[in-house]
Amino acid sequence: MDYRSVLTTCPYCGCGCGLYLEVVDGRIVQTLPSKTSPVNRGRLCIKGWNAHEFVHHPRRLTRPLIRRGDGQVEASWDEALDAVASELKRIKETYGPDSVALFSSAKCTNEENYLLQKFARAAIGTNNVDHCARL
Amino acid sequence: MTNSFDELADADCIFIIGSNTTVAHPLVATRLYQAKAKGAKILVADPRKIQMALFADVAVRQRLGSDVALLNGMMHVIVKNGWHNQAFIEERTEGFEDFLKVIEQFPPERASELSEVAVDDIVRMAEYYAKAQNGSIVYCMGITQHTTGVDNVKSLANLAMLCGHIGRPSTGVNPLRGQNNVQGACDMGGLPNVYPGYQAVTVPEIKEKFEKAWNATLSANVGLTVVEMVNGIEEGKVKAMVVLGENPLVSDPNAGHVRHALEQLEFLCVIDIFPTPTTQLAHVVLPGASYAEKEGTFTNSERRVQRVRQAIDPVGDARPDWQIIRDLSNRVGYPMKYGSAEEIYEEIRQLTPSYAGITYERIEGEGLCWPCPTTDHPGTPYLHKDRFARGKGLFHAIDYREPAEIPDAAYPFWLTTGRSYAHYHTGTLTRVSAHLDREMREVLLEMHPEDAGAYGVKDGDMVRVSSRRGTVTAKVQVTDRIGKGVLFMPFHFAESAANVLTNAALDPVCKIPEYKVCAVKVEKAA
Prior knowledge:
CATH class of the largest domain in chain A: Mainly Beta
Domain 4Fe-4S Mo/W bis-MGD-type (chain A): 3-59
Keywords (chain A): 4Fe-4S, Iron, Iron-sulfur, Metal-binding, Oxidoreductase
Number of strands of chain B: 23
Low-confidence stretches of chain B: none
Helix content of chain B: 25-40%
Number of strands of chain A: 7
Protein name (chain A): Molybdopterin oxidoreductase
Shape of chain B: globular
Organism (chain A): Desulfacinum hydrothermale DSM 13146
Strand order of the largest sheet of chain B: 16-20-17-19-18-23
CATH architecture of the largest domain in chain A: Single Sheet
Number of domains of chain A: 3
GO biological process, one term (chain A): respiratory electron transport chain
Strand content of chain B: 15-25%
Oligomer: heterodimer
């Protein structure tokens, strides 16, 4: 049996509680609160105690999907990324960079948010980037 | 937040307005209880009798959208009684005279009429807060999600400056962030008007700095906000959209309008970890990795930068979002070569002065609160110590404005929205978590017993709730937690989405939609 305990930060509210993900053979089996976190000092709320449950849920998206007719079909990463890039390039060239708008995410990491706004501003050439802070 | 979580426990008066802290920020609520146990006065202003109201020294239910009137009334009382901090006002602020002229017009009797809060309660709240040694204000979306959101926040800043309750430990104006990394997404420039570190896109020197660092020509035009993007689609200006980990079809106001708009896009790409109503409209859906499957950092409400660590491999073929964006960028002809999240973070540090001193190595343990300009800087638990960001603190003279939509004969009820304790935002994560789903499986519409009596509705009955924008069906919970004539509905449930009803009217400055106030009617469902 492979057991690991990984210290991370809760993905729910703006408190940012420190918690351990308890991993057995590649599956997260529970969370434990960090006792030394200055935010939560050994406590969690109901969401934090269950913050692992959605990770292994069978409904997770696990393959890229491309729309074909009325439905969406599984595709390879290369196919999907090529499709996104060629559509973004086409629309940018046809209508100008401000015809593209991007939502960054208050659920994603700082690194991902940084990269998405850099992508919007440097790669596409628009400041049309916002997220749900107001929502 | 201007101050940090732990400082709240040492305040001797805490004014909680528009924050259901025990439900939305439970670990902040623990500090409020600690302060209460040490003898602090707890003041709560919320349209619902939230749990914190049961422990409060004064708890009031203001009329929806009347916060400016209530706060101006409190400040009127403070000035009339000479409870304000004259030394702080003279030394640290400006604009006081203009502010006074507006405050003059809000005697407590008028404030009471507008806010439906008793005069006596307005006076007591004013006195407790003003006379405290260290008064803290805690607020959340109940203050901001209004067409007067900016006015509400400025009024709270006025109140704190009036009493000198800012720039010291256990004081301040403290917004609680609704999502785990709202603070970070803003800090990182996920906003249409600023680069990382709130550096304005409209300032030529700043634009040049980023053009040089990124080796690209950048736009000097302020971009569109979320709601403006949706309107931009209908106007034919926006043709393609990339959505990273968000579900605007459930989270945005006037959801029917959002669906109609997204369907008109020539191209929609959504990166997410679960299928959502929004992914269903996408031309391409890319599976992202969850927080447990990647490295990085989140920044919490007290500006503390903390590590996110990978515990397991991404499920199936999912990939960390930073890799997806990097690979897309390479394909559209703007090369990105990052090999790890930390490499991206190092670039953030170079360009974001408030993060410059925070390294992965330094936050191995506890995390650090920005601003932290150098690697030997200890971080900053509270802001505005000796001066405000702009120098002097500016009083704003703010008059009361009505919400965009108020009840009338056709739509006689007020509706307000919010969260429940077991669920989170659009429910994408919590409703697939067995233990959280078990706590609350469906939407419950809170209705006052007298209203329920008048409509012949019992606990558990189904009703149709309609606004000018749409109709949803919901199960009624009869409770005096909510005031007479007001309804409350959580927004987690796509099948009876509160945001089908809510009003997309925006604050004119910050463009936040008025989720907290709209007018609806109720009919008993067959």
